[in-house]
């Protein structure tokens, strides 16, 4: 298996820039050199802090760090060999993240609770032919598959985010009661996966195709464009930032925007 190249950025949306608010999105990734697996292992995480909570930017930064650390810790013990084992690892890692997040946030809040740090969280793990995804909230994942000497690349919407809204009461956060009951977990075994795009809901309109108010499939031109960009060894990160701040993207959603891209190098 070839190595993975990862590139990501989080940018404040127009509504936050206009209000003088910081970006409440965050992303983090790690390439796990010490994990003994069939090929490189990559962990990716994106988070979207609740726009209505006072310390959600801190929450987003904290939860992506905890997520990457929890998955790395679990994989240092064993690397799953089948789908059910991957699901168990992702669920137990997510449980550890929620517990540690609550403890840290409560401590930072001087015992007043963790609600002010509310955030979503989407995690993906790439290991050999396996792709594992665990998501809480309205983040989404698009996968690119390519068969050797086969047809053109195909793009797949793996998660199904709910209707987008920065302050939507439909969103589940890591601080929500019974959060684990809403956890989405998916495991895929496919050697043809060559690209991955994780994002927060600020890009759901331009990155996805909608029907009847529901995201149905990826916007192929958007996904192809950003993943092709990530494959360029001399790509200027400023060009990706310019895309996310372009009029066509901003007019569709004024929320913060995060892209975390992984491509086979």
TrEMBL record:
It holds the Pfam family PP2C_2. Gene3D superfamilies: PPM-type phosphatase domain. SUPFAM superfamilies: PP2C-like. Residues 13-233 form the PPM-type phosphatase domain. This is PPM-type phosphatase domain-containing protein.
């Amino acid at each position: 298996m070839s190595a993975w190249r990862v590139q990501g950025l989080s940018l404040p949306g127009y509504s936050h820039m206009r209000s003088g608010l910081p970006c409440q999105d965050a992303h983090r990734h790690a390439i796990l050199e010490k994990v003994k697996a069939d090929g490189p292992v990559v962990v990716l995480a994106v988070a979207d802090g609740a726009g209505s909570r006072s310390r959600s930017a801190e929450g987003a930064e904290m939860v992506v760090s905890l997520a990457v650390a929890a998955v790395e810790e679990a994989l240092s013990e064993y690397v799953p060999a089948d789908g059910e084992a991957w699901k168990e690892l992702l669920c137990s890692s997510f449980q550890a993240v929620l517990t540690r997040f609550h403890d840290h946030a409560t401590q930072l809040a001087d015992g007043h609770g963790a609600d002010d740090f509310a955030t979503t969280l989407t995690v993906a793990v790439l290991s050999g032919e396996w792709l594992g995804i665990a998501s809480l909230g309205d983040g989404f994942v698009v996968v690119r598959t390519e068969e050797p000497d086969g047809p053109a690349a195909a793009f797949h919407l793996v998660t199904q985010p709910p209707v987008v809204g920065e302050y939507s009461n439909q969103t589940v956060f890591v601080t929500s009661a019974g959060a684990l009951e809403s956890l989405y977990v998916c495991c895929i075994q496919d050697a043809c996966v060559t690209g991955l795009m994780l994002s927060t809901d600020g890009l759901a309109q331009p990155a996805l195709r909608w029907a009847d108010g529901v995201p149905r499939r990826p916007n192929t031109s958007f996904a192809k464009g950003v993943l092709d960009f990530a494959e360029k060894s001399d790509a200027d990160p400023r060009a990706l930032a310019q895309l996310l701040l372009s009029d066509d993207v901003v007019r569709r959603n004024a929320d913060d925007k995060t892209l975390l891209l992984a491509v086979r190098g």
